[in-house]
Structures are given as C-alpha cells and as structure tokens.
Amino acid sequence: MVTVRLVGISKGWSGVKAVDNLSLDIGKGDFVTLLGPSGCGKTTTLRMIAGLEDPDDGEIYIHGKLVFSASKGINVPPAQRGLGMIFQSYALWPHMTVFDNVAFGLVQQKLSKDQINQRVTRVLADVELEGLAHRYPSELSGGQQQRVAVARMIVVSPELLLMDEPLSNLDTRLRMQMRASLKRMHQETNTTVVYVTHDQEEALTMSTGIAVMNKGKLEQYASPEEVYERPASKFVAEFTGNPQTNFIDAEVVDGRLKIGDRFIGHIDGDALPNAVTLSFRPEAMSIRQESTPNTLPATVYATLLVGASVLVYVHIGNIEAVIRAERGSKFRGNQEIWLEPDWTQVNVYSPTTGRRLDYAVRG
Predict the structure, then answer these.
(1) Could you list the residue range(s) of the whole structural domain that residue 262 is in?
(2) 182 in helix, strand or coil?
(3) pLDDT for the residue numbered 158
(4) Cys bridge to 69: 74, 103, 115, 117, which one at CB 3.0-4.6 A?
C-alpha cells in the first residue's frame, strides 16, 4: 500500500526549477530519505507533501486521497493531511515545561494520565532528557531543544511523519543515539517516515529507501544497499560513501579494459563503447606488493588512520585515489604498490552522460 504518491510535481521560483517533474511512491511503513546537496529540492519536496508549499504542476496523494492537484484545483490544508512534521526550527511552547511540551499531543488525544506519564517518560529517556522534564525551553541548549521537538512528535506515533534535518544541531555522539532511537521508533510503530538530510551516512544507516536528488531531479530511488553498491550515476556515486568513490577512465579494446598503457580486466556485453569510466569504492581495491596481470601500479603519497582501518591515498598515473587497508598496515611516502580490483564491486559509467552502464566487468 502506498502512503505518499507524487505524480509529476514541479516547483520553481524566478524561472529556476527547485523540483522538476518528480514522481515517487512511498509505501506504508517505509523510511524514505530525500538525500542531496543544498539546493537540490529535497526540503521543497517535503514542504509540498506537508502542504506548506503549492506545486506549480502535478498531483500529491496521501493515504490514497488526492490532497493536491494543479489541474483539478484541489489543495487540502496542511492540518487535514494526517501527518506530523519536525522542522529544523524547534517551535516549542515557551510557557510549557519539557514534559508538557512532549505530552501536548497525547493530551489532545485524551489519553489517561498514566498512559501519558509512561509514554513521555520513555521517549525522554530515548533522547537523553529524562532529568530535564521540568525545565522550560529557555533553560535548554539548542541541541536539547531540538531533542524535545523530536520527542514531542515521535511520542504520538503519527501514521506519516515528515522530518527536515532534525538532528543537524546535535553533536556526534547524540546524533548516533538519536539515529538509533528513530530507527527503533520506526520499527516498533510502522510509521511511514519521509526524512530530509544532506548527510549520506544518516541516509545509508536509517532508511529503507533513498531518493537521491540533484538540481531538482531524481537521480536514483532505491534501497541503501543498491544506492551504495550500484549507484545509478556518477553523481550518486560521488555523493554517497565516506571517503567518496574513485573514478578511473579506461579504453575498451577488443573487450579488454586499458588503463594508461596497461590492460587489466575484461568487459562483456553487446555494442561495447570505445571508452568507459570505472568506479570503485575504497574497499574495492586490495593492495599488493608485487605486480600481477590483474593489478595497477600506484604510488603512495599519504596515509590516515581512521578507526579500524587505514586510508591510503595514492596516485594511479595522474589520478588520485583512496584505498581502505586494514588497521596496522604500514606504508611510506612515494612507496610503489600494486592495486587489485574486486570486479564484483566495480561499476561502469558513460564518460559523456555519467549514467551507469549495464556491462559486466571481470578479471
């Protein structure tokens, strides 16, 4: 069952399209993230779903009901669309305590005092505010106020919840904790969530589906695994993953891949192009100390220890790339090494369109 359906929606200002002919189905119980850089149209899309912005064209359905249609003159007010929304701004009641702010929606639902106490106490513990229940918003830091806003919305378990970068003001530890809390809330309540962020790590760790947007257009809509492992375009590949993916141009000669003056790997398929761009994540290359027929020569120019791994920055000809190696690996500057691709993790793109090509590559 589809909870939110967008059909060809567009929105522009002063001749610039913020959202360009976007169509998207979000199923019941999905946690879908609208992901992309600033100005890509993700927040405008969220506001159009909420009814806070009117599309120039297209239709919006929520729970099967048509809530907006430019051609039919239908525009259901935000309060009648059956959704909750958490903004980047907190919008807390200044005269209410933290407890009363969070409990407000439950009071409106006429729950018993015991039910309200139980649910508010639990959600305040989830956002690490249990000791601040009787404080007022003016007595809280910005990050604490943001957590109150999140708690106030998730405590009522709305069927459809829209979230616009709700964790942006939190420190790293609390952001991780809140991601876990939001994911647990989603799993327990089966709430449909539409979540906006420019943080690809948030999108990859929390979502059931990711809609990657660029300049108002949809680049890819797929599971986090597919977005990471099989990006539909060079833009998606560059925008997801940390550190970002590596690209190498290759010639195609009689079904073989030629990088520089070295033949490495094969490409299978009909009507092969003359040239392709290969994409590989830092973990998709293994470092070897000796040359073999399936390796590329590289030169180390820097290493960084990052948690459980070492990032090895190399030059492959005049291309800069980064390879993820095991913690404890030792390399020195200007050291010559050899890189062996894991072809199952290599993607092929058109150098002209930037779209992924359905050719298989192998060693």
Answers:
(1) 246-362
(2) helix
(3) 84
(4) 74
